[in-house]
Design brief:
The structure is a homodimer. Chain A is α/β, with parallel strands linked by helices. The first copy, chain A, contains 13 helices and eleven strands. Chain A is globular, with a radius of gyration of 19 Å. The first copy, chain A, starts with a strand and ends in a 7-residue tail after the last helix. Chains A and B meet through helix 3, helix 4, strand 7 and strand 8 of A and helix 3, strand 7 and strand 8 of B.
């Protein structure tokens, strides 16, 4: 039914596949000696998932406390994290208790950062519910929130004690949300698995695709837990993508923004001679099959000022990830003069 | 002039002694590849120290940005940390630049937490200026802020890249602040060095005393970096002390509060048969020689409700540190029924 892998860096299990939620109680009990579990979720998560989650925890003997954040990237702030702290304090959650994040990337990032910094670290169990979080953000220990327009500016590295990735939860997602998530799968295909890239199609991803992404991520994270080198290729499409997101006032969905970012940087790569011809076409084709929008050119000028403020920017250039061809990522410092020259995108 | 030691856990140097500030530029340049240094200080730090600090950094080639927080424990909040983030973003501080904390425990905790979580970790160099921070809080990698009345509730473990502990900076401290700091030296004497305890007297501590405290801390931190066991004895006097602080609305100085906490828990220890007779007298005598107030009894009932909410409390009991005699600490779960029984303090 589900597969398990262990991150050697931190040693936590990930249960991936349909029905994995039935592992939650046991995983939380292994993660936390205490008898309380604080479940942090958001208003977009269907009530049936929330009650499945709380029931699993209760049958493992936990007293369950539920906090519901407003859905959406706008919740990914220090203010929300402070509200979570207040909730934990109010309910006398101790550092031997568990914090469970049930939701997508925003819940994972926000609840994960709160758990990382509450009493200098409380056990965190992640239950991702979206394609993006199940394939990408739930693994690897990055937590963080935005600061104004500056995306993921505040955060730390903090591994969950377990990831419960139940692909059945994806079945209730709206179609647009699934399509958005395919952007992240295209990324994994583009940097590490040309077959995965070629197989992308509209609709729910297969368990095998979700597992493949998680495995690729595990490999890169194990090689470079603190994101000092190899792991950075996971940012393919993201540096430009975050610019698109910020320029839209965080209205543009993350996966769609990453798709724009991958398309733009791959077109640029072909123009400056880093990327083999045909690579842009392969990514464009995957985006179209997925149902993602591919009109990235319009948003690029608006995105550039935000890219300048990225964590990976030194003001003159930005550490970017390109591909030589699908499956072969390469890291490169891109000067802003090159990034801003529109002839490089024609 | 100064002594150096390395924390084996994290491998950072600490320069301790008169004149150590001359090491700041070099230490910051070793810690950070970037060319910017953000100095975070507070309004209570004499201008001469601030300019010494910025000059040292400039002569090492740094562009220096200065942020001054309002002095006092009331600044140790998430709001202040958020202001620091804003300052760092505004000045385009990158993750290869340095954050320098010049001040006492509040600056170290606040700027240290900001550095730990800005872009998921930016190099932090600590320049402690008070007796408490030079003997205790600058080492060991604990950062954190208060949340409402809940002291040090939010934070993480994040080692500085260097500690520049210039004991000459202590000479401008007001006498009351020095006296307050002696509370922390009494703690180190009580848990690990009866001679240090017996030698405590009013006024500026010797370089040898500062170094002895730092060495004792290093020993305990190396044995238990994440505060899961042995390191907890460093909390002697602190669990009750934090209760006194909170009950006073954070008006009571930290070292004075720790003195009350040590006195109360040692009297309790003698009454319940954990602590040898005479131990309370040895601590009381040191407090009196230091010029600390020893009228702890009055504040205890007000402190108890706050102790119940401590990180080390499970609601029924609290993990406390007592001594069997000076130099011999012992950890013990104290039920609140025992803590609250005033007969145990007579």
């Amino acid at each position: 039914m589900y597969k398990t892998f262990f991150s050697s860096g931190a040693g936590y299990p990930a249960y991936i596949g349909g029905g994995a939620l039935s592992m939650l109680g046991r995983a939380a009990a292994e993660a936390a000696a205490g008898r309380k579990a604080a479940v942090v979720t958001d208003s977009g998560i269907p009530a049936e998932h929330v009650s499945r989650c709380t029931e699993e925890l209760r049958s493992a003997g936990f007293e369950v406390f539920l906090m519901t954040l407003p859905a959406g990237e706008r919740s990914k702030t220090l203010g929300t994290v402070s509200d979570v702290y207040g909730f934990l304090i109010e309910n006398s959650i101790s550092r031997s208790d568990a914090v469970v994040g049930l939701g997508g990337g925003v819940v994972g990032d926000t609840a994960g950062f709160a758990a990382a910094t509450y009493m200098r670290g409380t056990a965190f169990v992640s239950v991702p519910t979206t394609v993006i979080s199940q394939t990408d953000s739930a693994y690897g220990g990055k937590t963080g929130v935005d600061h104004g327009d500056a995306k993921n500016m505040i955060g730390c590295f903090y591994d969950p004690r377990a990831v419960i990735c139940d692909t059945d939860l994806l079945k209730t997602l709206p179609e647009a949300e699934i399509t958005n998530g395919l952007g992240e799968i295209i990324k994994y295909g583009a940097i590490a698995d040309p077959e995965l890239l070629a197989g992308v199609s509209r609709g729910l991803p297969s368990d095998a695709a979700v597992f493949a992404c998680a495995e690729i991520k595990r490999r890169f994270v194990e090689a470079d837990r603190f994101d000092l080198g190899e792991r950075r290729v996971l940012n393919f499409g993201h540096t430009l993508g975050h610019g698109y997101e910020a320029a839209s006032g965080f209205v543009l969905p993350h996966g769609q923004a990453v798709a724009y970012g991958m398309l733009a940087v791959t077109r640029l790569g072909e123009r400056i001679g880093v990327t083999e011809a045909g690579s842009y076409g392969a990514i464009l084709s995957a985006c179209e099959r997925a149902g993602l929008d591919s009109a990235w050119e319009g948003g690029l000028p608006a995105a550039l000022p935000y890219i300048r403020r990225d964590k990976k920017s030194d003001g003159c250039s930005v550490d970017a990830v390109l591909i030589e061809r699908p499956g072969a990522p390469i890291r490169k410092k891109l000067p802003f003069s090159v990034l801003a020259d529109e002839r490089n995108y024609r």
